[in-house]
Design brief:
CATH architecture of the largest domain: Alpha-Beta Barrel
Strand order of the largest sheet: 1-8-9-10-11-12-13
Number of domains: 2
Strand content: 15-25%
CATH class of the largest domain: Alpha Beta
Distance between the termini: 14 Å
CATH topology of the largest domain: TIM Barrel
Radius of gyration: 21 Å
Number of strands: 13
Order of helices and strands: HHEEEEEEHEHEHHHEHEHEHEHHEH
Length: about 375
């Protein structure tokens, strides 16, 4: 069975020769030659892992789909972006002129850490949110540009699949606030917050329809639901802010023969029913305790017939656990994820290391994942 067939059978709930094993973000297409100082993958320590992913993992490459001739989300005449590099750190400042208010956001990124930190958020109070909601909506959805996506599929061949990656309305709304302000607004200003979610939903839905028509039958990842999971918000608000919006996205994807996968870190026990209610056909990363609060065995037993499960290894364990202890977690995940009846299980970590230097312990543990899964 090819790696492509193994993944697609797992996603469709068909028989496989063994559970697929994916390294999540690491898929063997990383650019090791790009000299950009903010590209951590040009460090030689990453080469063995990238080669291992390319040659032996069941590759899932996640990609967004750009749109040609689309109106920008924020009109260029009211939006500015400035960036400067100082002391090996990138500093970015963005401003939006919203009526009489000036909305400001700031971001930083260090050369040796593959993540961006938001140090100031656009929305600080209700007046900022009202000003943001008064901005004109984009006029043109545009046409999905699928050439890069199809080229990546050709590059992968039988070694894996390309997954369409999108954020839901909550994924666009929540990061406009600091986490403290977001939880307060979501709890106390529900009518106002729904207006924000509806705005993003009206922008997103036509794009999902267009992508689904252009790229039918693919796996999708929908990010954002974790913003409404405990301990940030109670389960009833998850249903209100996630299920009520993501169900429409899921339905469009499924009508085109696609496979929508919900991405939600952290505690799942209180929101699993609401996730399944969307009609999604996959779930990741189903984190083990203490990051999560539900076992993979429980999810498999209760929801395995409806969902292909992706997980349940913690990224920090890959970097820190001695290989013998990590091996135990891999075997447990394979046993629980494949027990009884179900659509399929893909062994996968919750994330990947994001420092410039990949440690020797992490490399050993990635190798162990392949060794155990292939046996």
């Amino acid at each position: 069975m090819t790696r492509h067939e193994r993944l697609m059978n797992s996603i469709k709930g068909l028989p496989v020769d063994r559970p697929p094993v994916s390294f999540y973000e690491i898929n063997g297409t990383e650019d090791t030659e790009n000299p950009d100082p903010f590209n951590i993958y040009n460090d030689p320590s990453w080469e063995p892992l990238i080669k291992l992913a390319r040659n032996h993992s069941d590759r899932i490459v996640q990609m967004g789909v750009p749109f040609r001739d689309a109106s920008p989300a924020i009109a260029p005449e009211i939006f500015t972006r400035e960036q400067v590099v100082s002391d090996n750190t990138l500093y970015v400042t963005e401003t939006i002129k919203a009526g009489k208010r000036r909305l400001l956001a700031k971001y930083t990124r260090e050369q040796d850490v593959n993540t961006t930190w938001t140090t100031e958020h656009f929305l600080k109070d209700a007046e900022d949110l009202e000003a943001y909601l008064s901005l004109p909506m984009p006029e043109e959805t545009g046409v999905p540009g699928i050439s890069s996506f199809l080229a990546k599929e050709t590059l992968l061949g039988d070694s894996g699949i390309v997954m369409i990656d999108i954020g839901d309305p909550l994924c666009s709304a929540a990061p406009l606030f600091s986490m403290d302000d977001y939880t307060i607004f979501a709890l106390t200003e529900k009518e106002l917050f729904h207006r924000l979610l509806k705005r993003f939903s009206e922008i997103l839905i036509p794009k999902v329809r267009a992508i689904s028509a252009a790229l039918p039958g693919r796996l999708w990842r929908i990010c954002g639901p974790e913003y409404a999971s405990p301990p940030y918000l109670p389960p009833e608000l998850f249903r209100e802010y996630v299920t009520s919006y993501d169900t429409a996205i899921v339905e469009i994807i499924k009508k085109s023969g696609g496979y929508p996968r919900i991405h939600s870190h952290g505690r799942l026990m209180g929101v699993l029913d609401h996730i399944v209610e969307t009609g999604c056909t996959g779930l990741d990363p189903i984190e083990p305790s203490p990051q999560g609060d539900v076992s993979l065995a429980y999810v498999r037993k209760k929801y395995g017939k409806q969902l292909t499960l992706f997980g349940n290894l913690e990224a920090s364990d890959i970097e820190n656990l001695p290989t013998k202890k990590f091996e135990e977690k891999v075997r447990t995940a394979l046993e629980e994820g494949s027990a009884g009846e179900g659509r399929g299980f893909v062994l996968m970590p919750s994330a990947c290391p994001y420092g410039r230097k990949l440690g020797a312990q992490a490399m050993k543990n990635y190798e162990k994942m392949i060794e155990i899964a292939t046996k």
